[in-house]
Specification:
CATH topology: Leucine Aminopeptidase, subunit E, domain 1
Radius of gyration: 14 Å
CATH architecture: 3-Layer(aba) Sandwich
Number of helices: 5
Shape: globular
Number of strands: 6
Bound molecules: ligand AR6
Distance between the termini: 16 Å
Order of helices and strands: EEHHEEHEHEH
Strand order of the largest sheet: 1-6-5-2-4-3
């Protein structure tokens, strides 16, 4: 598996699956979630509404993941996951690790070979980038993650990118 860390806008990534740092409602929000909904277009919100009505009446719990199409984005799928909201007292890093694990499991079920992750939880939800990168590293080390060849961490700012490089790029 090839792991890369880059700085940029994750909505531009031409990968099989882009992971979204969503909230339990799945109905959009700010940060990377807002950017993904804008880039994908209205079909994404439609699909999320249908998911809520049919499969997830109470929303998606923190630490879990679910896939939809990617609308007008270059990716094929969006994998929505919900980080623990540290600012609301959800301080268990295991839930953060579960976001990465369930996202990779969902990618494998879709036969996605390339997956792009943002820094789940490191914005509105208040996690230190270092804790997020460590959770990601731990879950990647649980693999082989058969079939997933290309995992990219696409970070929005230089500081977050540097933290992820230190934790995830082999020395
Ligand atoms: N590409 C890559 N990374 C981005 C982008 C982008 N286009 N935009 C922001 N980031 P956040 P969370 C970075 O707040 O902490 C939403 O309202 C951002 O700089 O998006 O999990 C949801 O609906 C930060 O490093 O996600 C939830 O309510 C990282 O993505 C809540 O925020 C994550 O920040 C989830 O909060």
């Amino acid at each position: 598996m090839h792991i890369t860390v880059t700085e940029g806008d994750i909505t531009d990534e031409a990968v099989d699956a882009v992971v979204n740092a969503a909230n339990s409602s799945l109905l959009g929000g700010g940060g990377v979630d807002g950017a993904i909904h804008r880039a994908a277009g209205p079909s994404l919100l439609e699909e999320c509404r249908t998911l809520r009505q049919q499969d997830l009446p109470d929303g998606l719990p923190a630490g879990d993941a679910v896939a939809t199409g990617a609308g007008q984005m270059p990716a094929r799928w969006i994998i929505h996951t919900v980080g623990p909201n540290r600012r609301a007292g959800e301080t268990d890093p295991e839930v953060l690790a579960s976001c990465f694990r369930r996202s990779l499991e969902t990618a494998a079920e879709l036969s996605a070979e390339s997956v792009a992750f943002p820094a789940i939880g490191a914005g509105v939800y208040g996690w230190e980038a270092r804790d997020v990168a460590r959770a990601a590293r731990r879950v990647l080390d649980e693999g082989p993650w058969t079939g997933i060849d290309d995992v990219r961490f696409v970070l929005f700012d230089a500081d977050t990118r540097k933290v992820f490089e230190r934790t995830l790029t082999p020395r």
